[in-house]
Amino acid sequence: MGGIHSGTSKQKTISFLAYHERQQQSLCGLHVVNNLLQRHAFTRFSLNRLARKLDKAERRLIDKRKRNAVLHFLTGGRAGWRLDARNCSARGDFSVQVLQAALQSEGLDLVRVTDTDWASRIGESWGFLVHRDDHWLACRQIGDHSIWLNLDSTLAAPLIMSTDEVIALHAGLSSRGGRMTVFNVVGPTPPSPYRRFFCGPVQKLRVNVPADTVL
User: Is the CA virtual torsion 205, 136, 110, 61 positive or negative?
Assistant: First the structure.
């Protein structure tokens, strides 16, 4: 999983950087995209613009499907009902459609993980978005060391994931129980922050690995 092969108890320490936005208000949708991309790629305002575009597209779709008849049915005949925005709430919650549109602008896409053929993704997938308990979090490989990080914005710092946790993620399962939805991120891997001069909430992490580790 991490490309690690060991035959000795001796250890060595490797260091790497990780971009990690902390939770602000209800903006986990914003943080999950930026943490996945490992840079400050989007702001609340840029995601709001995407949400408004999606809302308008949905309104036009209803218009094309005899809007008046649809609204009459949906509202039980109340007059003056208009379609409310559904892709962003007043608190800053963004729909999965907004997150997907943001990632598509970066050449990436989201594919929902099912329990079929998940083993084929091991060794190929580099990142996932997870929706659990009305909260979004990102998990991804980082650096040349093929280390997986949990970049949940509610954490004080990114967590290095165990092999069991990564396998569960590929299978769309929760390692701690409960229901969740997992999306595989498809497309070229965004560079890790250590590859270039970087500003922002970047943390330096260290991990001990066997001395004869092949990375």
Answer: negative
pTM of the model: 0.76
Q: What would the pLDDT profile of 44-80 be if each residue is shown by its tens digit?
A: 999 989 988 887 877 666 555 555 556 555 655 544 3
Residues 135 and 81: their CA atoms lie apart, in Å, by 30
Task: Reply yes or no on whether the pLDDT at 81 is more than 70.
Answer: no
Residue 170 CA to residue 90 CA, distance in Å, equals 33
- Cβ atoms of 2 and 210 closer than 8 Å: no
* 49 vs 91: CA distance, rounded Å: 15
Listed in sequence order, the DSSP H helices in 17-141 are 28-37, 44-64, 67-74, 96-104
For residue 23, give both structure tokens: 């939770």
| Torsion angle in degrees (nearest 10) through CA of 144, 146, 152, 158 | -60
Contacts of 31 (CB under 8 A, 6+ apart): 21, 22, 23, 24, 136, 153
Q: What tokens were used for 31?
A: 């943080």
- In 121-156, which positions are buried (b, 16+ CB within 10 angstroms) versus exposed (e)? beeebbbbbbbeeebbbbbbbbbebebbbbbbbeee
Q: How far, in Å, CA of 53 to CA of 27, rounded? A: 19
